[in-house]
């Protein structure tokens, strides 16, 4: 016996368009076209918004790497699952949505294109897949609703489309199961057990007459499709658009080193024949935004993960990374639409009107000026963002424009930059550096001379009594390993990191180009820095300007020497220590294991971890230029981190960054914990474990010069 669509009765299948007869079943097509037209128009407007912005040519390379990143983040959802509870919720919704779209596509191909695939074992597979996916979708939506409207975590803010999205999908799934249950009950579907949820529903929908069943089924069927059409039409106008935009943003995310900011060629801008007209650094208005910046805005779904880990926000400072991106999104979209309304009716801009009236500044309108200076550039926000939104580059472009184009920056920061411009470092006379190095008899390597290790001392160490000992201790370790080493002496200036963090690209690039020539005039195997900020700028930003030398952090080299047996730790240290992961060493350069390997190799030393460690470590508060400025408001970040260290019960805090050393030492004094705990650079413990004496009674170079 043959059944509908010439499928044998003993072959698994079901009646399609049950009780939906012609011409009514064909009425869905014009409605579908209307919904699709509204959707396409919305997508078109978004594409115009993105690609009317400035180009960004760095997003279309290394496709194999991009595809691997995409597969890791989107199908596998591994980045989302780093936060387990909302991660599981999202996985349930994401994969069930894809499965239901697959089942819908199969039905569409079978019914509308007459590609007869929806029968037999494949029918049974798709049927049970769709049922289980529908159940998973409902579970995910219930979790989402409970979390958003009952648990109400601080990181979530509710807008109308949050509820709209949940309700729309929930109603769609429920009406789908209801339709399936009615069909199973009144057709005596012999394959009902492969639709377990539909079968359960069928047990509760009996007792209707045939005309009643037809009316109820048809009404629910039309309502189900109406919900689907609303979903399609609303897609680009609500947060549902992230289904398309977020994967695209992941695929087109930056593949540049995490520790490097986008470069603008100041020299080329200054040499431009029309420099007076074309010179621009950073982003002041929406005209300077790139298309990728705008794509970031639409990829943001306000999940609040960035806000949950932002140390400034957690300490009640006026910065929320989530709000920062959302404010940029709303402002940019509004201003873009204002520009469009000045057009000639076909969407093109009225150049005369635009030239007469410059768009309003972003800082001061969309973003408060203090907000852009609150960021410590710790990268915690970017590390957890499932959309891979680039908060810090966005923030730094605003800083660059404020400093380079408008001369606006905090007074403390301005003093540091002026000192850098005058002396080559943010602290004081360069002669002080030369005098200290000569009196300390630190070996200097001149142009053309050779050594194994070129040691970068750094400005913070050179000009501060408490930090000079770190340089001595690193030198002792390297000499103890039999390495030939040297320093640049008076030729060493600032690495440029403070200028870049504060947004002054002119000073930064001038210093970088000068120091590259100085460094590369020496012959060495690797340059070693003990300051995480110097290390990061050498490894990740100097190559943008043609630097070609190997850079190691001192913890990397010490761990390597320890592994090779070139240094040993015969002396035990019977202390309890906790290690603070510097942002520019950990999150920026993924150096987590080497410092711990060193500490674990020291006899008697007990390592205890803080609650927030490794990639989750809290910032000390010194990054983003905050070593050079003090902005009041909220609890100091270094104080919060010192409290966390104190909770471990350790009596020592070790660091691998000179900024962190300073910030945490200050925090212990503020908390009156300096008698209970001490902050050391990791090199100091290494020297003791090697059997040496730590240098502590040194004279500050700046004080000696001043005297």
What descriptive keywords fit this protein?
707 residues; elongated; 31 helices; single chain; Fumarate Reductase Iron-sulfur Protein, Chain B, domain 2; 4-stranded parallel beta sheet; 3 domains; Fumarate Reductase Cytochrome B subunit; mainly alpha; disordered C terminus
Multimerization state:
single chain
Helix content range: 40-55%
- As for the number of domains, it is 3
* Global morphology: elongated
Question: What is the beta-strand fraction?
Answer: under 5%
Average pLDDT for all residues: 89
Radius of gyration equals 31 Å
Structural class of the secondary structure composition? mainly alpha
Number of helical elements: 31
Euclidean distance between termini CA atoms = 108 Å
Tally of DSSP β-strands? 8
Instruction: Please describe the biggest sheet, giving its number of strands, its sense, and whether it closes into a barrel.
Output: 4 strands, parallel
Low-confidence stretches at least 5 residues in length (pLDDT < 50)? 344-355, 696-707
Trace the largest sheet across and list its strands.
2-1-3-4
How would you describe this protein?
The protein is mainly alpha-helical and 707 residues long. The protein has three domains: 16-50 and 63-251, Fumarate Reductase Cytochrome B subunit (Up-down Bundle); 272-344 and 353-408, Fumarate Reductase Iron-sulfur Protein, Chain B, domain 2 (Orthogonal Bundle), CATH 1.10.1060; 416-706, no CATH class. 54% of the residues lie in helices and 5% in strands. The chain has 31 helices and eight strands. The strands form two sheets. It has a four-stranded parallel beta sheet. Helix 1 runs parallel beside helix 7 (210-234). It is elongated and about 105 Å long.
